[in-house]
Amino acid sequence: MVSNIEKNSIKKQEREWEKLFNAFYDGIWVTDGEGRTVMINHAYEQLTGVKKENVLGRLAHDLLNEGILAQSAIPGVMETHKPVTIINKINNKRLLVTGVPVFQDGNLYRIVCNVRDITQLTDLQKEIEIKDEIINHYESEIMKFKDTLNQIDSSPVIRTSQMRNLYELAQHVSATSSTIIILGESGVGKEVLANWIHQNSPRRDKPLIKINCSAIPESLIEAELFGYEQGAFTGANKRKAGLFEMADKGTIFLDEIGELPLNMQSKLLRVLQEKEVQRVGGGKTISIDVRIISATNRSLDKMISEGLFREDLYYRLNVIPFVMPPLRERSEEIPILAAHFLNQFNQMYQRQVEIGPVVVQRMMQYNWPGNVRELKNIIERLVVMSKDNQMSLDLLTDYIGKFKASTPLASNKPGKSLRDHITNYEKQIISENLQKAKSIRQAASVLGVSHSTLLRKIQLYKLDYRSLIGLKR
Question: What is the CB neighbour count within 10 angstroms for residue 389?
Fold first, then answer.
């Protein structure tokens, strides 16, 4: 017989278990083996809106039929004797319900259902998916922007008939696989032409491998061009394909071909003749299908006469020659090239620097020994170093101030400094354009500067703009 002390102890334990049961964050529903409700905790009532007094002692099957429960994992557990998980929707909430069987003596003794509100998790998942889509979109846009910047240098910017004829011929021969050599001074755009030929050829979807023959050490150039087998030399721990193999079915651009050592010239000649390569340390030949475009700023004729370049290789390379004229012979392209690079670097550095006609005019008077590459570099320098949105003539003058102008300045009197000449010339240009324009805004548009910049210059030079543009006071 149970004493009062024992009864009190049992009741105390039951109260403690009930407190622990109701302390769970998740909702808990417990039935017996027949699906009759034994207990539910406070969290379940709050999550589902179901009251304890309406379900205790009742079968889950009856509760489903009466609509008190919309869904339940209990019937599934009773049928399968295995854990069952469902998603239950109640009052705009998404509840994750997992029913777990509990066995005693091999029989189904209890079913414990754990209920968790996953509405917030679902919303977070959707938010993450949306943000992932946004991130993917912007990554795609960034890649497109980078591709655009990368392609800027491969797109020809031409204005003269000489360059137009050159690119028209390049367009014609790009459809073939003929070997091409591009001659011209350093920086004239030989690589741009090579890129353009490849992109307009049937090989456009295949690799374009670029090799600067002057940048690879002589001891490594054969291994780089033709590859090597494992153990061919110290450090050759595994087989490596050469650049010619990597360019198979595509184009290989051999820049600075005049710097190729004589012993490598003979091996390159064999590749051109046999259309096959042999790896260093290898015994078999590998067939390749590669279009070769070479370029040099050296006189190969002179190098042949001096014994520095193989005559037979020259004739193999010189199937279709292109001669790129220096920038000083096509100065009409300087304004459009300057605008092209200005746009490129404004995008790259998120600037809004403008270039005025006086700066352009001064650029056109310069000899540009470094050709287009030098022009590009000075435009980048001016964009980066200009303190406002107007390209600084002073910075340009610091760079090219020692050249001899081919066009006389407005005033060439003895004793005047270079700055005086620049000031007088700029003042003359502004005055001439104001006389032709109907307004300051129109003159600013023609000069390629902002309205505020031109107005500041007018005030600086104390010009009577009303008289110049034909307005009466």
Answer: 14
